[in-house]
Specification:
Chain lengths: 207, 207, 207
């Protein structure tokens, strides 16, 4: 459980940074920074815990998590102007947080003895739901929908790695999952890796 | 329970098709298709199960549901270009899925012995929440808010049918509910049926 | 519990009014009014109850709450044209509902014996989540994100008041919380009170 808890902490910290960076783009006040940081940081894990009926949910069991997220928000509030380009900082931090969160979410489902499809779903939900909530609340185009970029797809392959490696141990599975997710996402951002997208012919119009 | 389960399967399949069609409009890759299909297909039912504290929620109890939704996504990924007009296909499929989902949701509440208002709410939530999540995530104007078209209203009358007919048997109530919902929605789309909408005079401006 | 229940009723009524006013801006039909009123009225409390694992959630335990919200929707459907300026009516009602809902949410967490951070979060969630859902569904810029206005911040300070005063009694804490929240929000709207917002220098562009 300790390794899984550490993963949860790490993803909370990094997602909180991305939430606070979105708050800096929207020029909110410091409480707004904390709100966006906490929403992004615990949104995916909260949904996971509600769906798996884990009780109490992770940040009620351990409110330190909220302190970590709030600390990240304060850090960004006072230092975001030091970043040359906030948007690319958001993207790379988000990739790291995605990798860690997918590993944490799918690992928890494995620890519960869930079957492979549920492990996959929990990896994707824990990885993608917090950032999705951040983007929906901030009225930005959700990253998960950015056309022609791998995002949900990375989480999906990360979850698949957890499923395949989980027989060899939880730590190995977590490492494999985080590595696959991050490499896929980084490859997509740096080298333009992508899956073929749907290219519909424009619908024929009736004459 | 079997009839209710079948209804859940059918609504999952059809909602998944509409989610995948929205993914085709956004030109996502195949994992994006699966994501949107699953979100739309199980979103409403997941919310219903969380609120009614049904445990485990339906697609964790039966992961086949996720396979059905993913299959629908793959089908659309390879065949959506065959549809002449994807948007009208979305609308009509959505009407069918709405009818089935309202019947499933309100039927489950009746089976739990909930009072009439909760039956109504669960019908509306199961019917409307998945499509609402689909539209919010895809950044489209939610169908439930399309001005002057019946949508939530159809779900509401469907739920009312369940309440009125449920004394005669679950199958009868499900049939009545689905029929009322679909006829109301189809009438709204084909013949322009609607309830009077709010027509406020423009607010007077202070001189 | 009675005082807390009364607070829940009051916030349901007022939030329902704001939801119905948003429905009037979107010119929905009467069922759309009821939908938006109920979503706004019970959204925050539903999320709170799911996260605190209170079972059944408050409006399933007491469906009268749905009747109150629906009644508010009908009232607005027939009388909204009497309001000179609907938007400012939404803002002021929302401030009152926020104050009451933060008091209700943080009070329930205190009654459960939760630690201070969870009390704070439950105050903010109960106060802000319903209005946030209303704005996201209606495709309006979320009030919680309005740049340079106190909103989440007011809920936060209200929750803080609950934490500080809760040793003196639940009623005193509720009153203090509602007063702090409302005064902060009213001061923000009427006198422009605000916290310093993040003012980043525009990111330097590479030469």
């Amino acid at each position: 459980m300790t390794a899984l808890n550490l993963l949860d902490y790490a993803s909370v910290l990094i997602f909180a940074l991305t939430g606070a960076l979105v708050a800096s783009r929207a020029q909110l006040d410091v409480v707004g920074f904390v709100f966006m940081a906490c929403l992004t940081a615990v949104g995916g894990g909260t949904l996971r815990d509600l769906m798996l009926d884990r009780n109490p949910i992770f940040w009620i069991a351990d409110p330190t998590i909220l302190a970590v997220a709030s600390g990240a928000a304060l850090l960004v509030f006072f230092t975001a102007h030091l970043l040359e380009s906030r948007y690319s900082a958001i993207l790379w931090l988000d990739a790291a947080a995605l990798a860690v969160a997918v590993a944490a979410g799918s690992g928890i489902a494995v620890a519960q003895g869930q079957p492979a499809p549920i492990v996959l779903v929990m990896g994707v939900v824990t990885g993608c739901a917090g950032g999705l909530m951040r983007d929906v609340v901030a009225n930005e185009l959700p990253l998960v929908l950015k056309q022609g970029e791998l995002y949900v797809t990375c989480a999906f392959f990360g979850g698949l790695a957890t499923v395949l490696v989980s027989d060899y141990g939880a730590a190995e599975a977590g490492l494999a999952c985080a590595a696959v997710t991050f490499v896929a996402r980084a490859g997509s951002m740096a080298f333009g890796w992508r899956l073929p997208v749907y290219k519909g012919r424009p619908p024929r119009t009736k004459p």
